[in-house]
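Exercise 7. Predict the joint structure of the components listed below.
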Amino acid sequence: MRCDVALLAHVLLDGVEERELDLWLSERERAALSTVARPDVRRRRAAGRLAAKHLLLRDGAESAAGTPADGDRFVALDGAGLQAFPADRYREVELMPADGGGAPLPTLRGEALASRLSIAHAGAVSCAALSSRGNALGVDLETVEPRTGAFYRGNFTAGERAWVGAAAATGALDAEWLYTFLWTVKEAALKSGAAPVRSVWEFLAVEVDGPPDLAARLAGCIGAELGERFTAFDVTVTAAGRSTRGAVETTATRDAILTLFTVSTAFTAATAALEATP
Amino acid sequence: MKSISADLDQRQMTSGVQRVFAQVTRYPLEILDPEAALEEDLGINSVKLGEVFAVLRETYQLPPVLGIPPEQLRTIGSIAAALTQYLVEHGAESNGNGHVVVAAAVNGNGHAPTAAVASAPVAPPAAPAQAAQAARTTKHGNGSLEPATFEASIRSIFAEVTRYPLEILDPEAALEEDLGIDSVKLGEVFAVLRETY
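Solution:
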């Protein structure tokens, strides 16, 4: 199994006119984006798609060349990086929204690709993740910032809150950062289809269980830039009596966290039913 | 008490949901068009939605899982419709003025109680049950005649009926001269007070 992550920083697109970005998008993609009212949302969606297209093109080029598939798995893209492939190659890869939402479905010259993609945005950065062999995956990217008290009570289980309390007490990472990390795992798992919940509304019913030394591992993934340091470990995501194992890879700064969740094995565990309590 | 009326109370719910969005996102209310797409039109991302949903759950005392399809979580209007439907199906009651009382945490302006929105990430956060209990107490006081609770409850009912922000409702202000509350509106307030106590 191979998954790639690409980052595309918005700031690198500053000064690039929207019509220039359009050169890298298909006609149908441009039409879909034109329905989005906010320029900042249009821009970040375009950036996420370009990052995803870059990964697909690179993956195709590597496969054609027989390049080993364990090269650089994380690419921080700038204008020059994007132009590693000509604009018409980008236009040949099309990412249209899936019916009912979810990750866009990739096609190459109209033919469906087996690759699975996930795209996320936060602050000034968009990112894409690719599983070239079609394994279920999800990526999430969030900025670390103070949130309402209800957010912490309403999205994290008692066990998770106790873990954050204990981990924050060591002083290596603060509670806001740790809660944001847990959120990225839940959202990446939701995007991968591994968390048996329908939306972020139900995150209180999802519990993330990591290795005993999780906090120490996380402290080791913080660098000056996203992609500088990674940590990898397995987690179990449980909801509604169903548990799913996933491989998590996280890279972070003090202000932003990017988490990739790849489904390993799914199994059902005997857990207490999460009954709704009106 | 009578069963909540879906058509009447969806308007109230939309207003309540709008105000929770305003509170969490700090967007002016007038921007928060109930029909606007949350991400595409308003730029509200998923983690911000997570904040809003957590406040809504505490405000309306909703369970963690409602089974709302994701496509119903894309506008304020559709979220309000989904929550109204849930409350109707689960026996929420109206106090006769079309105000939902099952939730008992909205102060009438849709403002969530302080306990629900206080910024406090450090563990251990206040238990949801405690917050919900505090919220119940701040609205109708559960009929309590303890002086502080009673006064807060009455102010909350005035806020609910008049839609004035709580901070305007100074306990010493003259109802008509200072606050412009006319006799008809006062009658509405008294009706709610009678039902509550």
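Discussion. The first strand of chain A starts at residue 3 and ends at 9.
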